[in-house]
């Protein structure tokens, strides 16, 4: 978690969360989390209580033209679905913010960052300057400006 969106997450939540994510990856995936997997972990932050690590690539590389964003997005939504099945009402995830997955070193253009057939609910095309936010209660997506580097 030392580049791009991962670095911003670590900068915001702190190295303690990064260490817990890495320990979970060691425990559950023997040290390397495959593309197409995701899990829900508590952040310790009351404003943003959950994080869903869902990698789009094993190592930094161009993923334009692959199904990596589809697999990562689907894995994230499935992890949230599984979490919510057993969570109490006060611990359910009711909204999701997705970064422009694959937009950085992955060089995935906006038209390919829309995982159109991954579920009945798909985010809109995501420009590099925005994130797609899903509201579980209304079952709708909205685009919001991506304020990377700003305090959230």
Automatic annotation (TrEMBL):
Domain annotation Macro: ranges: 1-142
InterPro entries, alphabetized: Macro_dom (IPR002589), Macro_dom-like (IPR043472), TFA_Chaperone (IPR051220)
Top-level lineage group: Bacteria
Descriptive protein name: Tail fiber assembly like-protein
Organism: Salmonella enterica subsp. enterica serovar Wandsworth str. A4-580
């Amino acid at each position: 978690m030392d580049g791009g969106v991962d670095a911003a997450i670590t900068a915001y939540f702190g190295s303690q969360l990064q260490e817990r994510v890495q320990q979970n990856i060691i425990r559950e995936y023997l040290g390397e989390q495959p593309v197409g997997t995701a899990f829900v972990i508590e952040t310790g932050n009351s404003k943003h209580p959950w994080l869903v690590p869902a990698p789009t690539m094993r190592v930094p590389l161009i993923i334009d033209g692959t199904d990596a964003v589809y697999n990562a997005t689907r894995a994230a939504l499935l992890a949230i679905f599984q979490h919510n099945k057993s969570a109490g009402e006060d611990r359910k995830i009711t909204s999701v913010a997705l970064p422009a997955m694959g937009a950085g070193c992955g060089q995935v253009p906006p038209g390919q960052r829309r995982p159109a057939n991954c579920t009945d609910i798909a985010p809109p095309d995501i420009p590099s300057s925005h994130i797609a936010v899903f509201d579980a209660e209304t079952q709708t997506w909205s685009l919001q400006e991506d304020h990377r580097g700003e305090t959230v």
